[in-house]
From TrEMBL:
Residues 28-47, 55-71 have a biased composition (Pro residues). This is Qat anti-phage system associated protein QatB. The gene is qatB. It comes from Ferrovibrio xuzhouensis. Residues 1-74 are annotated as: Disordered.
């Protein structure tokens, strides 16, 4: 919830998955020397007619992506009302927490797959973070940093290294989606010491999973709070109760992410650079599915 305070929440009519939201929230950059449309950098166009031949008809303009339908403006109401009851209870009304999360995934987002698709920039950021961590485990922190032209950070405290990685993992942008991804990464940096991760040079595979678990948890929590409208929910005036509400939500989300990572342990062990983004997207989808099941169980008092 701390990551979402800068955002005012989604309007009810916002499409479930905006048309501009790609795998990482931005279109891929063209390679060096290539024009944006992928044509040859020099010489005549590839489709230029032979000498004496009539000119070819100009290609048809590319089709515009379809405009997503406007979503139900009241789709967040059930999740918002239940989370307000949970917050108002100071964290004691676990059934309302369960209903809030279950409604968010199932009704508000349209299921786990669509909820995961809404994690656009956080999905790209998570894949870059996991790819870097995997490289650090395999080749060492120094070589992994050099590959990003960040060799000067080698040997520095891990918090400084991660701050130096921020522009690579989650480039700063103006959209709410990009802001959520970046704020979740900053929250993750503050969580490292509490997780006992203090040395990037000796990073283990289990610690790599923990760092990604922390990031995915913070990103999902921020997405959920932003969507249901963090500023419309009043936290308890007692600071201890407010902290308990936040801690319980974070713990709830983290259990779902941890379970998803446990299920995917074999895939994580065989992770390759070209499969990182797909793996991260699958983790988000599985985590949302697990969170819906956990929410239903909590709502029923199981």
């Amino acid at each position: 919830m701390g990551t979402s305070s800068a955002f005012g929440g989604q309007g009810g009519g916002t499409p479930l998955v905006p048309s501009w939201l790609g795998d990482d929230g931005a279109p891929p950059a063209a390679p060096d020397g290539a024009p944006p449309d992928g044509g040859p950098p020099d010489g005549p166009p590839a489709d230029a007619p032979a000498d004496g031949a009539p000119p070819a008809a100009p290609p048809a303009p590319p089709a515009r992506p379809p405009i997503p339908p406007v979503a139900d403006p009241a789709r967040f109401s059930a999740a918002r009302n239940n989370f307000s009851r949970f917050a108002g209870s100071g964290g004691s009304d676990r059934k309302s927490l369960g209903r809030a999360v279950s409604h968010y995934v199932g009704s508000s987002s349209g299921g786990a797959r669509t909820a995961a698709a809404r994690m656009g920039s956080a999905r790209g950021a998570g894949s870059r973070l996991l790819g870097f961590l995997s490289d650090a485990v395999a080749r060492g922190a120094t070589e992994a940093l050099r590959s990003l032209n960040l060799g000067a950070l080698a040997g520095r405290p891990i918090e400084e290294i991660f701050l130096g990685l921020a522009d690579y993992v989650c480039p700063d942008g103006g959209s709410i989606d990009e802001g959520i991804a970046r704020e979740a990464f900053i929250e993750t940096i503050t969580d490292l010491a509490g997780a006992g991760i203090t040395d990037l040079d000796g990073l283990t595979a289990d610690q790599m999973q923990t760092v990604f678990e922390l990031y995915a948890t913070n990103a999902i929590e921020a997405r959920l709070c932003n969507d249901i409208g963090a500023k419309t929910i009043t936290l308890p005036s007692d600071s201890r109760e407010a902290a308990r509400v936040q801690a319980q939500l974070n713990d709830f989300v983290r259990r779902g992410v941890a379970d998803a990572l446990t299920v995917a342990r074999a895939a994580a062990a065989a992770l390759t650079p070209d499969r990182v983004l797909q793996f991260v997207g699958r983790i988000y989808e599985q985590a949302f599915g697990i969170l819906q099941i956990m929410g239903d169980a909590e709502a029923e008092g199981a």
